[in-house]
Amino acid sequence: MSIWKRKPMALLLAEASESEKGLKRTLTAWSLVALGIGAIIGAGLFVRTATAAAQNAGPSVTIGFIVAAIGCALAGLCYAELSSSIPIAGSAYTYTYATMGEFLAWIIGWDLILEYAVGAATVGIAWSEYLNNLLVNVLHVSPIPYELCHSPFQTSVDGVNGIINLPALFIVGVISLLLIKGTQESAFVNGIIVVVKVAIVVMIIVFGWSFINDANHTPYIPEPSVFTDEHGIGHSYGGILGILGAAGTVFFAFIGFDAVSTAAQETKNPKRDMPIGILGSLAICTVLYILFAHVLTGVATVEDFRTGGKEASVSFAIQKYMLGYEWLAQFVTVAILAGFSSVILVMLLGQSRVFYSMGKDGLLPKAFSEVHPKYKTPYKANLAILVIVGLFAAFVPGDIVGDMTSIGTLFAFILVCISVIVLRKTEPDMKREFKTPFVPLVPILGIIVCLAMIYGLGWTNWLRLIGWLALGFIVYFGYSKKRSKLNNPNNQE
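Given the sequence above, the corresponding C-alpha coordinates read:
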Protein backbone atom coordinates (compact mmCIF):
# COMPACT_ATOMS: atom_id res chain seq x y z
CA MET A 1 0.00 0.00 0.00
CA SER A 2 1.83 3.09 -1.27
CA ILE A 3 0.99 6.71 -0.55
CA TRP A 4 2.52 7.51 -3.96
CA LYS A 5 0.17 5.26 -5.93
CA ARG A 6 -1.32 7.08 -8.92
CA LYS A 7 -4.90 6.85 -10.08
CA PRO A 8 -4.89 5.18 -13.54
CA MET A 9 -5.88 7.46 -16.42
CA ALA A 10 -8.23 4.76 -17.78
CA LEU A 11 -10.13 4.79 -14.47
CA LEU A 12 -10.45 8.58 -14.52
CA LEU A 13 -11.78 8.64 -18.08
CA ALA A 14 -14.21 5.80 -17.27
CA GLU A 15 -15.60 7.93 -14.43
CA ALA A 16 -16.07 10.81 -16.88
CA SER A 17 -18.14 8.61 -19.19
CA GLU A 18 -20.59 7.70 -16.41
CA SER A 19 -22.23 11.13 -16.46
CA GLU A 20 -25.74 9.65 -16.53
CA LYS A 21 -25.07 8.12 -13.10
CA GLY A 22 -23.36 11.16 -11.67
CA LEU A 23 -23.29 14.91 -12.18
CA LYS A 24 -25.55 16.41 -14.84
CA ARG A 25 -23.85 18.02 -17.89
CA THR A 26 -25.58 21.40 -18.32
CA LEU A 27 -22.85 24.05 -18.68
CA THR A 28 -21.77 25.75 -21.93
CA ALA A 29 -18.63 27.74 -22.80
CA TRP A 30 -20.49 31.00 -22.01
CA SER A 31 -21.63 29.57 -18.65
CA LEU A 32 -18.00 28.79 -17.82
CA VAL A 33 -16.74 32.24 -18.86
CA ALA A 34 -19.49 33.80 -16.73
CA LEU A 35 -18.62 31.52 -13.79
CA GLY A 36 -14.98 32.59 -14.12
CA ILE A 37 -15.80 36.30 -14.27
CA GLY A 38 -18.28 35.81 -11.43
CA ALA A 39 -15.55 34.36 -9.23
CA ILE A 40 -12.80 36.77 -10.30
CA ILE A 41 -14.47 40.20 -10.10
CA GLY A 42 -15.29 40.75 -6.46
CA ALA A 43 -13.47 41.79 -3.31
CA GLY A 44 -10.14 41.81 -5.10
CA LEU A 45 -10.98 44.52 -7.60
CA PHE A 46 -12.95 46.85 -5.32
CA VAL A 47 -10.86 46.42 -2.15
CA ARG A 48 -7.43 44.95 -2.91
CA THR A 49 -6.57 47.49 -5.63
CA ALA A 50 -6.56 50.36 -3.15
CA THR A 51 -4.78 48.26 -0.50
CA ALA A 52 -1.94 47.36 -2.89
CA ALA A 53 -1.63 50.98 -4.03
CA ALA A 54 -1.48 52.23 -0.43
CA GLN A 55 0.90 49.63 0.98
CA ASN A 56 3.07 48.48 -1.90
CA ALA A 57 3.17 50.11 -5.29
CA GLY A 58 1.27 53.39 -5.59
CA PRO A 59 0.17 53.91 -9.22
CA SER A 60 2.39 51.04 -10.39
CA VAL A 61 -0.20 48.66 -8.91
CA THR A 62 -1.18 48.27 -12.58
CA ILE A 63 2.18 46.54 -13.16
CA GLY A 64 1.44 44.35 -10.14
CA PHE A 65 -1.80 43.32 -11.85
CA ILE A 66 0.16 42.46 -15.00
CA VAL A 67 2.62 40.29 -13.02
CA ALA A 68 -0.27 38.50 -11.27
CA ALA A 69 -2.05 38.06 -14.61
CA ILE A 70 1.08 36.54 -16.20
CA GLY A 71 1.29 33.99 -13.37
CA CYS A 72 -2.41 33.20 -13.73
CA ALA A 73 -2.16 32.96 -17.54
CA LEU A 74 0.74 30.51 -17.36
CA ALA A 75 -1.13 28.40 -14.81
CA GLY A 76 -4.35 28.88 -16.81
CA LEU A 77 -2.77 27.32 -19.91
CA CYS A 78 -1.86 24.30 -17.78
CA TYR A 79 -5.38 24.16 -16.28
CA ALA A 80 -6.86 24.32 -19.80
CA GLU A 81 -4.87 21.30 -20.98
CA LEU A 82 -5.64 19.20 -17.91
CA SER A 83 -9.35 20.09 -17.64
CA SER A 84 -10.00 19.40 -21.33
CA SER A 85 -8.03 16.13 -21.24
CA ILE A 86 -9.34 14.92 -17.86
CA PRO A 87 -12.92 16.29 -17.67
CA ILE A 88 -13.51 15.15 -14.08
CA ALA A 89 -14.78 17.11 -11.09
CA GLY A 90 -12.06 17.96 -8.59
CA SER A 91 -9.71 20.28 -10.47
CA ALA A 92 -6.10 20.29 -9.25
CA TYR A 93 -6.84 17.46 -6.79
CA THR A 94 -7.82 15.09 -9.63
CA TYR A 95 -4.89 16.11 -11.85
CA THR A 96 -2.40 15.55 -9.03
CA TYR A 97 -3.91 12.12 -8.22
CA ALA A 98 -3.32 11.05 -11.83
CA THR A 99 0.23 12.38 -12.07
CA MET A 100 1.95 12.46 -8.68
CA GLY A 101 0.10 10.00 -6.48
CA GLU A 102 -2.35 9.87 -3.61
CA PHE A 103 -0.38 11.68 -0.91
CA LEU A 104 0.26 14.79 -3.00
CA ALA A 105 -3.36 14.61 -4.22
CA TRP A 106 -4.50 14.68 -0.60
CA ILE A 107 -2.23 17.67 0.08
CA ILE A 108 -3.70 19.63 -2.82
CA GLY A 109 -7.26 18.61 -1.88
CA TRP A 110 -6.63 19.82 1.66
CA ASP A 111 -5.02 22.96 0.27
CA LEU A 112 -8.08 23.66 -1.91
CA ILE A 113 -10.20 23.76 1.28
CA LEU A 114 -8.02 26.72 2.24
CA GLU A 115 -8.78 28.39 -1.09
CA TYR A 116 -12.50 27.67 -1.48
CA ALA A 117 -14.09 27.07 1.93
CA VAL A 118 -12.04 29.54 3.96
CA GLY A 119 -12.18 32.02 1.08
CA ALA A 120 -15.98 31.73 0.85
CA ALA A 121 -16.34 32.36 4.58
CA THR A 122 -14.06 35.39 4.38
CA VAL A 123 -16.05 36.87 1.49
CA GLY A 124 -19.28 36.10 3.37
CA ILE A 125 -18.04 38.21 6.28
CA ALA A 126 -17.15 41.04 3.89
CA TRP A 127 -20.64 40.71 2.34
CA SER A 128 -22.10 41.32 5.80
CA GLU A 129 -20.05 44.50 6.22
CA TYR A 130 -21.11 45.91 2.86
CA LEU A 131 -24.76 45.03 3.52
CA ASN A 132 -24.67 47.52 6.39
CA ASN A 133 -23.00 50.02 4.06
CA LEU A 134 -25.90 49.54 1.61
CA LEU A 135 -28.53 49.94 4.36
CA VAL A 136 -27.01 53.16 5.71
CA ASN A 137 -25.62 54.97 2.64
CA VAL A 138 -27.93 53.83 -0.15
CA LEU A 139 -31.25 52.88 1.45
CA HIS A 140 -30.82 55.33 4.38
CA VAL A 141 -32.21 52.96 7.02
CA SER A 142 -30.83 51.74 10.33
CA PRO A 143 -27.92 49.27 10.19
CA ILE A 144 -28.09 45.76 11.62
CA PRO A 145 -27.13 45.85 15.34
CA TYR A 146 -23.40 45.32 15.90
CA GLU A 147 -23.86 42.20 18.02
CA LEU A 148 -25.83 40.46 15.24
CA CYS A 149 -23.32 41.12 12.44
CA HIS A 150 -19.98 40.46 14.17
CA SER A 151 -18.27 37.45 15.70
CA PRO A 152 -17.95 36.93 19.49
CA PHE A 153 -14.24 37.82 19.18
CA GLN A 154 -14.99 41.37 18.02
CA THR A 155 -15.84 44.45 20.08
CA SER A 156 -16.99 47.83 18.76
CA VAL A 157 -15.39 51.15 19.71
CA ASP A 158 -18.39 51.67 22.00
CA GLY A 159 -17.65 48.44 23.85
CA VAL A 160 -20.44 46.34 22.29
CA ASN A 161 -19.49 42.64 21.96
CA GLY A 162 -20.42 40.69 18.86
CA ILE A 163 -22.53 37.53 19.21
CA ILE A 164 -23.06 36.09 15.73
CA ASN A 165 -22.66 37.30 12.15
CA LEU A 166 -26.18 36.55 10.90
CA PRO A 167 -25.90 38.23 7.44
CA ALA A 168 -22.75 36.21 6.62
CA LEU A 169 -24.48 32.99 7.70
CA PHE A 170 -27.56 33.97 5.68
CA ILE A 171 -25.75 34.54 2.37
CA VAL A 172 -23.74 31.31 2.72
CA GLY A 173 -26.96 29.40 3.44
CA VAL A 174 -28.93 30.89 0.52
CA ILE A 175 -26.16 30.23 -2.00
CA SER A 176 -25.60 26.68 -0.70
CA LEU A 177 -29.32 25.91 -1.19
CA LEU A 178 -29.18 27.43 -4.68
CA LEU A 179 -26.25 25.13 -5.54
CA ILE A 180 -28.18 22.10 -4.28
CA LYS A 181 -31.12 23.08 -6.50
CA GLY A 182 -28.92 22.83 -9.58
CA THR A 183 -25.73 23.94 -11.29
CA GLN A 184 -27.62 25.30 -14.31
CA GLU A 185 -29.86 27.46 -12.10
CA SER A 186 -26.82 28.66 -10.15
CA ALA A 187 -25.03 29.53 -13.40
CA PHE A 188 -28.09 31.51 -14.59
CA VAL A 189 -28.21 33.60 -11.39
CA ASN A 190 -24.44 34.08 -11.59
CA GLY A 191 -24.76 35.25 -15.22
CA ILE A 192 -27.16 38.04 -14.21
CA ILE A 193 -24.79 39.16 -11.44
CA VAL A 194 -21.84 39.16 -13.86
CA VAL A 195 -23.65 41.51 -16.26
CA VAL A 196 -24.32 43.95 -13.40
CA LYS A 197 -20.74 43.85 -12.09
CA VAL A 198 -19.04 44.24 -15.46
CA ALA A 199 -21.38 47.12 -16.41
CA ILE A 200 -20.47 49.06 -13.26
CA VAL A 201 -16.72 48.41 -13.68
CA VAL A 202 -16.92 49.68 -17.27
CA MET A 203 -18.85 52.79 -16.13
CA ILE A 204 -16.15 53.61 -13.56
CA ILE A 205 -13.46 53.27 -16.23
CA VAL A 206 -15.34 55.34 -18.84
CA PHE A 207 -16.62 58.12 -16.56
CA GLY A 208 -13.50 58.23 -14.39
CA TRP A 209 -11.01 58.54 -17.27
CA SER A 210 -11.64 62.29 -17.67
CA PHE A 211 -11.02 62.84 -13.93
CA ILE A 212 -7.48 61.37 -13.98
CA ASN A 213 -4.93 63.78 -12.51
CA ASP A 214 -1.50 63.15 -14.09
CA ALA A 215 0.18 64.31 -10.87
CA ASN A 216 -1.19 61.21 -9.12
CA HIS A 217 0.73 59.03 -11.61
CA THR A 218 4.04 60.83 -11.02
CA PRO A 219 6.34 59.05 -10.39
CA TYR A 220 4.60 55.96 -11.78
CA ILE A 221 6.99 53.64 -9.93
CA PRO A 222 7.77 55.24 -6.52
CA GLU A 223 11.26 55.14 -5.06
CA PRO A 224 11.84 52.10 -2.80
CA SER A 225 10.93 52.68 0.85
CA VAL A 226 9.06 51.02 3.73
CA PHE A 227 5.42 51.80 4.55
CA THR A 228 4.22 50.92 8.06
CA ASP A 229 0.48 50.29 8.37
CA GLU A 230 -1.79 51.00 11.37
CA HIS A 231 -0.97 47.57 12.83
CA GLY A 232 2.77 48.36 12.86
CA ILE A 233 3.53 45.94 10.01
CA GLY A 234 6.12 47.14 7.49
CA HIS A 235 5.57 46.73 3.74
CA SER A 236 8.07 47.19 0.89
CA TYR A 237 6.79 50.25 -0.95
CA GLY A 238 7.92 51.24 -4.43
CA GLY A 239 10.54 49.71 -6.69
CA ILE A 240 10.62 46.06 -7.77
CA LEU A 241 9.83 44.67 -4.30
CA GLY A 242 6.82 46.97 -4.04
CA ILE A 243 5.48 45.72 -7.39
CA LEU A 244 6.04 42.08 -6.33
CA GLY A 245 4.27 42.78 -3.04
CA ALA A 246 1.39 44.40 -4.94
CA ALA A 247 1.23 41.36 -7.26
CA GLY A 248 0.91 39.06 -4.23
CA THR A 249 -1.79 41.32 -2.75
CA VAL A 250 -3.88 41.76 -5.91
CA PHE A 251 -3.46 38.08 -6.79
CA PHE A 252 -6.49 37.61 -4.52
CA ALA A 253 -8.38 39.53 -7.22
CA PHE A 254 -7.67 36.76 -9.76
CA ILE A 255 -8.67 33.83 -7.58
CA GLY A 256 -11.62 32.10 -9.17
CA PHE A 257 -10.72 31.33 -12.76
CA ASP A 258 -9.32 27.98 -11.61
CA ALA A 259 -12.68 27.17 -10.01
CA VAL A 260 -14.04 26.84 -13.55
CA SER A 261 -12.06 23.61 -13.88
CA THR A 262 -13.92 22.04 -10.94
CA ALA A 263 -17.08 22.03 -13.07
CA ALA A 264 -15.52 19.98 -15.90
CA GLN A 265 -17.80 17.00 -15.26
CA GLU A 266 -20.90 19.21 -15.59
CA THR A 267 -19.85 20.77 -18.91
CA LYS A 268 -21.57 19.74 -22.15
CA ASN A 269 -18.38 19.74 -24.25
CA PRO A 270 -15.44 20.02 -21.83
CA LYS A 271 -12.73 19.48 -24.45
CA ARG A 272 -13.78 22.64 -26.30
CA ASP A 273 -15.47 24.66 -23.55
CA MET A 274 -12.99 24.34 -20.65
CA PRO A 275 -10.10 26.22 -22.36
CA ILE A 276 -12.55 28.91 -23.52
CA GLY A 277 -14.01 29.25 -20.01
CA ILE A 278 -10.68 29.43 -18.19
CA LEU A 279 -8.65 31.59 -20.57
CA GLY A 280 -11.62 33.70 -21.71
CA SER A 281 -12.63 34.77 -18.20
CA LEU A 282 -8.99 35.45 -17.29
CA ALA A 283 -8.38 37.60 -20.39
CA ILE A 284 -11.53 39.70 -19.94
CA CYS A 285 -10.83 40.35 -16.25
CA THR A 286 -7.16 41.21 -16.80
CA VAL A 287 -8.02 43.99 -19.26
CA LEU A 288 -10.71 45.36 -16.92
CA TYR A 289 -8.36 45.20 -13.90
CA ILE A 290 -5.52 47.13 -15.53
CA LEU A 291 -7.83 49.87 -16.83
CA PHE A 292 -9.69 50.06 -13.48
CA ALA A 293 -6.44 50.35 -11.48
CA HIS A 294 -5.12 53.03 -13.85
CA VAL A 295 -8.27 55.11 -13.41
CA LEU A 296 -8.55 54.65 -9.63
CA THR A 297 -4.92 55.60 -8.91
CA GLY A 298 -5.26 58.57 -11.28
CA VAL A 299 -8.44 59.93 -9.73
CA ALA A 300 -7.37 59.70 -6.06
CA THR A 301 -4.02 59.98 -4.25
CA VAL A 302 -2.15 57.23 -2.41
CA GLU A 303 -2.75 59.18 0.80
CA ASP A 304 -6.52 58.90 0.18
CA PHE A 305 -6.20 55.11 0.07
CA ARG A 306 -4.18 55.13 3.30
CA THR A 307 -6.48 57.38 5.31
CA GLY A 308 -9.95 58.37 4.11
CA GLY A 309 -10.75 55.53 1.74
CA LYS A 310 -9.56 52.27 3.27
CA GLU A 311 -11.85 49.38 2.22
CA ALA A 312 -14.42 51.71 0.66
CA SER A 313 -11.77 53.54 -1.40
CA VAL A 314 -13.64 53.24 -4.69
CA SER A 315 -16.80 54.89 -3.36
CA PHE A 316 -14.66 57.43 -1.47
CA ALA A 317 -12.71 58.41 -4.60
CA ILE A 318 -15.89 58.84 -6.65
CA GLN A 319 -17.60 60.98 -4.00
CA LYS A 320 -14.54 63.18 -3.38
CA TYR A 321 -13.21 63.72 -6.89
CA MET A 322 -15.85 62.73 -9.49
CA LEU A 323 -18.34 65.52 -8.82
CA GLY A 324 -21.74 64.83 -10.31
CA TYR A 325 -21.26 61.07 -10.20
CA GLU A 326 -22.22 60.43 -6.57
CA TRP A 327 -24.91 58.03 -7.87
CA LEU A 328 -22.10 55.86 -9.24
CA ALA A 329 -20.66 55.48 -5.73
CA GLN A 330 -23.99 53.97 -4.62
CA PHE A 331 -23.94 51.61 -7.60
CA VAL A 332 -20.45 50.51 -6.53
CA THR A 333 -21.84 49.37 -3.18
CA VAL A 334 -24.49 47.33 -5.03
CA ALA A 335 -21.80 45.94 -7.36
CA ILE A 336 -19.63 44.91 -4.42
CA LEU A 337 -22.54 43.05 -2.78
CA ALA A 338 -23.37 41.35 -6.08
CA GLY A 339 -19.70 40.64 -6.65
CA PHE A 340 -19.26 39.05 -3.26
CA SER A 341 -22.38 36.92 -3.82
CA SER A 342 -21.07 35.44 -7.07
CA VAL A 343 -17.61 34.87 -5.58
CA ILE A 344 -19.19 32.89 -2.74
CA LEU A 345 -21.26 30.93 -5.26
CA VAL A 346 -18.29 29.84 -7.35
CA MET A 347 -16.10 29.08 -4.31
CA LEU A 348 -18.81 26.89 -2.76
CA LEU A 349 -19.34 25.21 -6.14
CA GLY A 350 -15.62 24.48 -6.38
CA GLN A 351 -15.35 23.20 -2.80
CA SER A 352 -18.33 20.85 -3.13
CA ARG A 353 -16.88 19.32 -6.32
CA VAL A 354 -13.52 18.73 -4.62
CA PHE A 355 -15.33 17.05 -1.68
CA TYR A 356 -17.36 15.02 -4.22
CA SER A 357 -14.19 13.70 -5.86
CA MET A 358 -12.42 12.98 -2.56
CA GLY A 359 -15.54 11.18 -1.28
CA LYS A 360 -15.61 8.97 -4.40
CA ASP A 361 -11.95 8.10 -3.79
CA GLY A 362 -12.56 7.22 -0.14
CA LEU A 363 -10.29 9.97 1.21
CA LEU A 364 -13.34 11.67 2.74
CA PRO A 365 -16.64 10.07 3.90
CA LYS A 366 -18.57 8.36 1.09
CA ALA A 367 -21.63 10.55 1.75
CA PHE A 368 -19.85 13.50 0.10
CA SER A 369 -19.97 11.66 -3.25
CA GLU A 370 -23.72 10.98 -3.18
CA VAL A 371 -25.72 12.83 -5.84
CA HIS A 372 -29.27 14.11 -5.34
CA PRO A 373 -31.70 11.80 -7.22
CA LYS A 374 -33.62 14.73 -8.74
CA TYR A 375 -31.21 17.67 -8.95
CA LYS A 376 -28.06 15.64 -9.78
CA THR A 377 -25.89 17.75 -7.47
CA PRO A 378 -23.62 16.55 -4.62
CA TYR A 379 -26.10 17.79 -2.03
CA LYS A 380 -24.53 16.15 1.03
CA ALA A 381 -21.19 17.73 0.20
CA ASN A 382 -22.99 21.08 -0.17
CA LEU A 383 -24.71 20.63 3.21
CA ALA A 384 -21.43 19.71 4.93
CA ILE A 385 -19.76 22.78 3.43
CA LEU A 386 -22.74 24.92 4.46
CA VAL A 387 -22.12 23.88 8.08
CA ILE A 388 -18.32 24.37 7.91
CA VAL A 389 -18.36 27.68 6.04
CA GLY A 390 -21.45 28.90 7.90
CA LEU A 391 -19.87 28.35 11.32
CA PHE A 392 -16.69 30.09 10.22
CA ALA A 393 -18.59 33.04 8.72
CA ALA A 394 -20.85 33.39 11.77
CA PHE A 395 -18.28 33.14 14.55
CA VAL A 396 -14.76 34.00 13.29
CA PRO A 397 -13.36 37.45 12.32
CA GLY A 398 -12.65 37.77 8.59
CA ASP A 399 -9.37 39.68 8.62
CA ILE A 400 -7.05 36.72 9.30
CA VAL A 401 -7.34 34.53 6.22
CA GLY A 402 -7.32 36.70 3.07
CA ASP A 403 -3.64 36.14 2.36
CA MET A 404 -3.93 32.48 3.42
CA THR A 405 -6.42 32.04 0.60
CA SER A 406 -3.92 33.57 -1.84
CA ILE A 407 -1.00 31.43 -0.74
CA GLY A 408 -3.12 28.27 -0.82
CA THR A 409 -4.17 29.04 -4.39
CA LEU A 410 -0.61 29.79 -5.53
CA PHE A 411 0.50 26.45 -4.10
CA ALA A 412 -2.27 24.71 -6.09
CA PHE A 413 -1.16 26.50 -9.26
CA ILE A 414 2.39 25.26 -8.81
CA LEU A 415 1.25 21.63 -8.53
CA VAL A 416 -0.96 22.01 -11.62
CA CYS A 417 2.02 23.31 -13.63
CA ILE A 418 4.11 20.34 -12.43
CA SER A 419 1.25 17.96 -13.35
CA VAL A 420 1.38 19.03 -17.02
CA ILE A 421 5.11 18.28 -17.22
CA VAL A 422 4.72 14.90 -15.50
CA LEU A 423 1.70 13.86 -17.58
CA ARG A 424 3.49 14.68 -20.84
CA LYS A 425 6.18 12.18 -19.79
CA THR A 426 3.98 9.44 -18.31
CA GLU A 427 1.04 9.65 -20.78
CA PRO A 428 2.54 10.94 -24.05
CA ASP A 429 -0.15 9.32 -26.22
CA MET A 430 -3.16 10.64 -24.27
CA LYS A 431 -5.60 12.60 -26.46
CA ARG A 432 -5.30 16.32 -25.70
CA GLU A 433 -7.89 18.62 -27.29
CA PHE A 434 -5.97 21.62 -25.98
CA LYS A 435 -2.21 21.58 -25.55
CA THR A 436 -0.23 23.95 -23.36
CA PRO A 437 2.34 25.54 -25.70
CA PHE A 438 6.09 25.34 -25.17
CA VAL A 439 6.14 22.62 -22.52
CA PRO A 440 8.09 22.51 -20.22
CA LEU A 441 8.93 26.24 -20.58
CA VAL A 442 5.41 27.59 -19.90
CA PRO A 443 4.79 25.41 -16.78
CA ILE A 444 8.28 26.21 -15.42
CA LEU A 445 7.70 29.95 -15.90
CA GLY A 446 4.32 29.53 -14.18
CA ILE A 447 6.03 27.89 -11.19
CA ILE A 448 8.64 30.67 -10.99
CA VAL A 449 6.09 33.51 -11.13
CA CYS A 450 3.86 31.84 -8.52
CA LEU A 451 6.86 31.27 -6.22
CA ALA A 452 7.78 34.97 -6.60
CA MET A 453 4.27 35.97 -5.49
CA ILE A 454 4.45 33.54 -2.54
CA TYR A 455 7.73 35.23 -1.59
CA GLY A 456 5.98 38.61 -1.76
CA LEU A 457 3.33 37.47 0.74
CA GLY A 458 5.87 37.19 3.57
CA TRP A 459 7.03 34.60 6.10
CA THR A 460 3.96 34.81 8.37
CA ASN A 461 1.80 33.40 5.57
CA TRP A 462 4.40 30.71 4.81
CA LEU A 463 4.11 29.54 8.42
CA ARG A 464 0.30 29.51 8.27
CA LEU A 465 0.38 27.36 5.13
CA ILE A 466 2.82 24.93 6.76
CA GLY A 467 0.60 24.72 9.85
CA TRP A 468 -2.51 24.02 7.75
CA LEU A 469 -0.69 21.29 5.79
CA ALA A 470 0.57 19.73 9.03
CA LEU A 471 -3.03 19.43 10.22
CA GLY A 472 -3.86 17.81 6.86
CA PHE A 473 -1.13 15.20 7.37
CA ILE A 474 -2.75 14.17 10.66
CA VAL A 475 -6.15 13.73 8.98
CA TYR A 476 -4.65 11.77 6.06
CA PHE A 477 -2.64 9.28 8.11
CA GLY A 478 -5.32 9.03 10.81
CA TYR A 479 -8.35 8.58 8.52
CA SER A 480 -7.95 8.79 4.74
CA LYS A 481 -5.03 6.42 4.10
CA LYS A 482 -6.91 3.49 5.66
CA ARG A 483 -10.05 4.16 3.62
CA SER A 484 -8.53 4.97 0.22
CA LYS A 485 -10.26 2.94 -2.50
CA LEU A 486 -7.13 2.98 -4.65
CA ASN A 487 -4.94 1.52 -1.90
CA ASN A 488 -7.69 -0.63 -0.36
CA PRO A 489 -9.73 -2.03 -3.30
CA ASN A 490 -11.78 -4.28 -1.03
CA ASN A 491 -12.77 -1.39 1.23
CA GLN A 492 -16.03 0.07 -0.11
CA GLU A 493 -17.03 2.01 2.98
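Strands lie at 225-228, 234-237. Try to locate this feature in the C-alpha coordinate string yourself.
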